């Protein structure tokens, strides 16, 4: 049987609607999984029932992380957050962390993992840590714009068998202080944490770039999704 993957929902506040980029769903499907977009339910019993039916969790991109999750006050340059989603993802991540259920975080996902595990974030990279490297590219989003250096003693290296990787990039926040519970798997050419894992867990990893945009044209992006679905199987 194919593993069932819970995909964290995106939310449009103006339209009051759930929505989802097809890239996430298609990337899971091509890797052999069945993606299911999760509801924004806050009911503990409902969440437990849903969680128990899933083989893995995908934490997607989206709004900025609520600053209270990493102990800061929002600056004027911090983007809008969506507290209901933050709380939902907190519950799911803590369950997955405690029960060792596979998780893949993308963009916001890496930031969420870091915040929930005691790290901090740059609320806006351009203001707090400006760099010449492109981290907020323009379309097309499947084109690489900067390099990351991969730790050879990491799960990511085991997956890709590469010391360097050229990636796409679309974010304005990033990890500032890395959680002591996370392991740094890759950094960008200008020194930002770009990939992490949780030591001693089966498969809890996250990347700052967007393999869901590039999986159709990039074998390394497919390898990431394939490894995730394999861990969920």
- Biggest sheet overview: 9 strands, mixed
The CATH C-level name is Alpha Beta
Shape: globular
* CATH A-level architecture: 3-Layer(aba) Sandwich
Strand content: 15-25%
Please give the number of β-strands: 13
Order of helices and strands: EEEHEHEHEHEHEHEEEEEHH
What is the average per-residue confidence, as pLDDT, rounded to a whole number? 96
Q: Evaluate the radius of gyration.
A: 16 Å
Q: State the CATH superfamily name.
A: Class I glutamine amidotransferase (GATase) domain
Number of H/I helices: 8
Enumerate the strands of the largest sheet in spatial order, edge to edge or round the barrel: 4-1-5-6-13-12-11-8-9
Going by helix content, strand content and strand pairing, the class is alpha/beta
As a percent range, the share of helical residues equals: 25-40%
List the uncertain runs.
Answer: none
